[in-house]
């Protein structure tokens, strides 16, 4: 078994990840396209890796836990805050209809666009902007994911979430944040659940 298959089997045998569409997307997308050549030997080590500009590509298990909480399907229009390498949104985009991803560091906007092209993903728009404002032009979104730790979920993101939509975000201090899942019901009421502790770079 290679390192990628080992990860897959770890998730399936522990039942940590059971969303089949997501497991298939993980096998389909090559993380190799989203990391720097110098880290290729660690491509499927279950850890974050540097992507430049003091940012990181998230640990594979964290990516999968967050995307599973989003309950992705092919009708979804997704908004991601924090494109980074583009890996997380690449996996999501291979399931959903269309994804928008906002990144505030211009170098990473260019990097992620190049990575997504390498991976032949053509349903993602990367936007060079501050994700704390969301992305109004394409709103509302049926799913929103924030991949950096916010002290509080920006209220505009909740406004840009459609009824029956799901938002997933790490909330708290970067080194110690809680994974929060928000469900907005058909009456626009917010329901919040928490899903363990994680470490993330900060939302700035
Ligand atoms: N999802 C990424 C990893 C994210 S690391 C991947 O799959 O590789 C978090 C990213 O959030 C970093 O690239 C950082 O620059 C970005 N970020 C932080 N604050 C932001 C903000 N206010 N708006 C947009 N992006 C932000």
What does the model show?
With 204 residues, the protein is of the alpha/beta class. The chain contains six helices and nine strands; from the N terminus they run H-H-E-E-H-E-H-E-H-E-E-H-E-E-E. It has helices spanning 3-14, 20-28, 60-69, 87-93, 106-118, 155-159; strands at 49-52, 55-57, 77-81, 98-103, 124-128, 141-146, 161-173, 176-184, 190-198. The strands form two sheets. Strands 5-4-3-6-7-8-9 form a seven-stranded mixed beta sheet. Strands 1-2 form a two-stranded antiparallel sheet. A hairpin with a 5-residue loop joins strand 8 and strand 9. S-adenosyl-L-homocysteine (SAH) binds at residues 55-58, 81-82, 84-85, 87-88, 102-105, 108, 130-132, 147-148, 201, 203-204.
The number of helical elements comes to 6
State the low-pLDDT regions, or none.
Answer: none
Largest sheet: 7 strands, mixed
Radius of gyration: 16 Å
Overall geometry comes to globular
